[in-house]
C-alpha cells in the first residue's frame, strides 16, 4: 500500500516553505516517524517524518523547491517493498524476483538517463530542472547540458547547478584540483546549512588570485530578518540611550558561588540571568517599557516574557523566556542553555519564538564594545549588552581599575519618553552594581 507524505500544516502567518536536505534516498527503508526531509520556513526548520514504515518509493520534490501545506513530498510503499510485484508469481524464487527487479530498475534508469539526455540536448532547461535550479542557472549563465542531474529521473537540483558553477571556475589550473574538491564540499555544506555566511566566505577564498563574485539566493530566514529590521527602522521612532555598569559586584558574587551553583543545579552561572532579573525588576517599575502599540491603542502587558537573542547557523533567533519573573536563576540559565543548543541544531519551535514583551541581546560574546540594537516589533524596547573591559573609574574620590560594560537601550519614542528610558536603564545599572537589591527588590 502506498502512502503519500505531505507538507504538514505550517505555522501561523507562514504560507510556504523551501525543501531542504533529504535525509533518505529513493529506495531506502524508512521507519514510522523517521525524519525524511527538512523544510525551511521564515523562522524555523520543520522535520517531516514518515507516517508509516516501508520503503521510500518516490521523491516528488527536490531540494530548493518551494512547497505549500498539503503538497505531496514523497511516496512510501508500506512493508519491505517486496510485495510490489505480481501476486501470481508466488512460486518464483526470491533470487529470481530480485534479479527481475534489478533488471527492471536498470531499464527504468536507462530510460530516465536517455530522456534526461534528450532534454538536455534540446536545451529544455525548465523540463528537467527544479525552479530553484533553473533560477540559479539563469543567473550564472549555465546551460542544462553542462549540469549532471542527481535528482529523480535525472532532474537537476540547485546543488547540482552550484557544483557545476564551482567546477567551471576551478577547471583550469592543475594545482587547483584540491581547491576544486574543497569548494565542492563547501557547496554541499552550504546546501545543508541553508547557505551559511561562513561557507560563502570560504567559497570566495578558494580563488584568492581572481576577482570573483558569487550570487546565492537568500535563505527564507534571512529574508524574514531583513523584512523585520527594515520594518523596525521605517515604522518606529527608534532612539538609543547609553550607560555603563561596573560589573565587579556581580563578578565577585559569581566567582564566589559558581562552583557550588553548578554542582547543585547542573548548569553554569552566567551573567545573563542577572540581567534578565534586573530587566524584569526595571520593567515592573516602568511598565510603559513592557507595553506595545496596537493601532491606536497602548497595550500594557501584565506578564514578563523576555526574548533572548541567540546566534545560529541560519541567522539570529529570538526565543522567549516565558514568565521570566517566576523563574529562578538556575531555571533561567538552564532554559537559555537549552534554547541556545537547539538553535544551533535548528530545533527551536515557532511557539518558542512567538510573543515576547522585551528583548535582551548580548553582542559582547563576539567582542562588541558598543552598538545600537534594533527593536523587535511590536515590542517597544531592547537592551544591548556588550563586552566587559577593565577601565579606570573614580570610586570615593580615587581612581581604580574596574570591569566595565557598556549598556544600550533602544526604544520606540512614540511610546516611551526619554525620561522613562534613561531611568529604566539607570535602574538596571544600579541593580547590577548592587545585586543584593535584586533579592530585596529595592
Write a structural description.
This protein is an alpha+beta fold and 442 residues long. Helices cover 37% and strands 23% of the residues. The strands form five sheets. Strands 9, 12, 15, 16, 17, 18 and 19 form a seven-stranded mixed sheet that branches. It has a four-stranded antiparallel sheet with strand order 1-8-6-3, with no helix packed on it. A hairpin with a 2-residue loop joins strand 10 (292-294) and strand 11 (297-299). Helix 9 packs across helix 10. The longest helix has 28 residues, at 94-121. The chain is elongated. The N and C termini lie far apart (68 Å). The model is unreliable at 82-94, 96-101, 107-127 and 172-190 (pLDDT under 50).
**Termini, distance in Å?**
68 Å
Structural classification = alpha+beta
The number of helices is: 12
- Poorly predicted runs are 82-94, 96-101, 107-127, 172-190
* Number of strand elements: 19
Portion in beta strands: 15-25%
Shape: elongated
- Estimate the helix proportion, in percent: 25-40%
User: If you average the pLDDT, what whole number results?
Assistant: 80
Q: Characterize the largest beta sheet: strand count, sense, and whether it forms a barrel.
A: 7 strands, mixed
Instruction: Report the radius of gyration as a whole number of Å.
Output: 28 Å
